[in-house]
Amino acid sequence: MECTTRLENGFTVIALCGEVDLHFSPKAREIILKHLQDKNHVLVDLSDVTYIDSSGVASLVEGFQHARTHDLKFALLGVSKAAMQILQLSRLDKVFPIITHAAEADQL
Amino acid sequence: MSQPATLEQLKPSDLPSPPQAALQILRACSRDDVSSSVLSVLAEKDPVMTAELLRVVNTPFFGLSRKVQSLNHAVTILGQRTLRNLVLCLSVRDAIGKDAIPGFDTATYWEDSLRRAVSAKLLAPQLRQDPDDCFTAGLLQDFGLLVLFYLRPEMASYWEELRGLDPDARYEAEQRYFGHNHTGMISLLADAWGLPEELGRVLGSHHNCEILEPAVGSNENHPSLCRILYCADWMNAIFSTPDKSFVLTHTQQLLQEHCGMEEDEISTCLNTLAEEMEAAARSLGLHIETQPDIEQIMRQANAKLAEANLSYQELTWKLEQTLKERDALAAELEKELQLAREIQESLLPRELSDDFPITGLNVSALQLSGDFYDYFVLKDGRIYFNLADVSGKGVYAALLMAKTSSLFHCLGKHIHKPDKLLAHINNELCETAIRGMFVTMIAGIYDPQSGSVKMVNAGNPPALLFSPGNKVQAIEATASPLGILSDSSFPLAAEIHLREKDCLYLFSDGATEGYLQEGGEMLGLSGLLKLIMSMHKLAPKDQLRAIVEKFSAASATLHDDITIMLIEGKTPHA
Hints:
The complex is a heterodimer. Chain A is of the alpha/beta class. Chain A has three helices and five strands, in the order ββαβαβαβ. In chain A, a hairpin with a 2-residue loop joins strand 1 and strand 2 (11-20). Chain B is α+β, with helices and mostly antiparallel strands. In chain B, the strands form two sheets. Chain B has a five-stranded antiparallel sheet with strand order 1-10-9-6-7. A five-stranded antiparallel sheet of chain B has the order 2-3-4-5-8. Chain B starts with 19 loop residues before the first helix and ends in a 6-residue tail after the last strand. Chains A and B meet through helix 2 of A and loops of B.
């Protein structure tokens, strides 16, 4: 599992890939929070995520909560089928803003 | 002389050269047919050398019974080989004058060389070698290093550092500092001076004797001479290097291995060294300092060895202590975790009567669980139940589990509407939210009289209702998990009615995301469905145990906590 970061449409896009589990979640959390603490609007790209467990989802929740309290924008981008199933099952797809393309971030 | 720009551009004429007469004798000696009178004639061409040769052969070092008056006589008595050795020793001694390398401590160089020569001579009988040959080779073996300094006088200040290294380390350091080493240089010199080929090969290879090993059945003796020179180099290092304990131990090993010497023979050999050196120095006209006492050196080395041994013992002791401390801490931690586990288990409901309609089972992946379940009977006979899963695993999940289960158990006694109860718990959790942790939960109220189940599924995998005739209904999540957004609503799922033989299963995602085979695929909802159906006829407790055992059997450790609850319908069908 690796993270890559890019700038797109005024957002920092953090792309996670592979399995976001108990082993990798702390790393994902650290990167997401770092960019939010730097006052960046963040999109977390989940298009290459093959599995995400509850600790991985917690990293996303923390980012989401941090963004809300600090008036920053936060959304999930291009959520893979595997990740979407997990989010839908727990109805978290109703909690996170989810977009398909970075261009849609303007609407957030 | 003018130094070559680099050692690669070296010409034979750049090398130090012995007097012409000495060179002629050395070259003549390499022929078998030369007569002693021819050699003496050659030597007498150089009266200074002749006088020096006669002085040397008459010193006690040669042990001749009567004084030799003429060179012809000396050659006759000593033979061609000894004369050659003698001329060679004097040539080496005089080839580079004591002030030829400014800033270079020639005295210590010659002291070391003489010690190698005497050591080689003392070792000669051990490998049946000629002592004079060994002495001469010993005197010559590191002459290449002096030549290197002669060609690169600006490096003179490095001599002290090189001298302090053991022979192997010094050999590598020469290569680094000069880009050459003394064996390569002595090989060049052996060619230029016309030394016998065998001697040249030994001198050029004494740090790599294996390449000289003779073919099986061969009588060549230069591998033995080579080993003697290598050992002699280490014997000198006992005196010239500061790390005496290592060098002494290593030299003793080498002498045992290469020369087959016992401990007492080695000790005698080292004790004789100083006296022999003084005699050789007088004979060759070299000045050496008073030799250090070998007994004292050995005492120093042994003391250092004992000190190192003590440090090692101390280190071992410290390691043992650290391991004991680690084990004690691990045991303490284990005890703490065990206690925490007991407290956690106490938060789970007590088993009620056998005909109680709800059964639950929780198995944790780690010592502590992030899952929990609960049920308790309200005054009106209805039963409040829940099953929940905290995100993540381990201690931090267990702490949030304790908080959430306590909130449920306490508030549930007063708030008899699951949707309202979960909204309260959610707000409490959101107030202290940390690290994005959240809780998925199914909570509801079951009325065994009417069979009514009113429940909320907050982000948990669906509950499965099994009815006779293999009818299955899934009760999906109606709300997102608790602890994410305050003031969220938790709408009730459509009310269901459990009839006799209906079974409502609740489970955490550890069951759907579990594996029945190591390295196999996740079970998934349909896989769990099949598993439940295969166990359906067992009694409730046995069913749950059998299901969990399927996961436990698949691998040594569970991937996630697994919690399952079964609610049975008791109301007769209408």
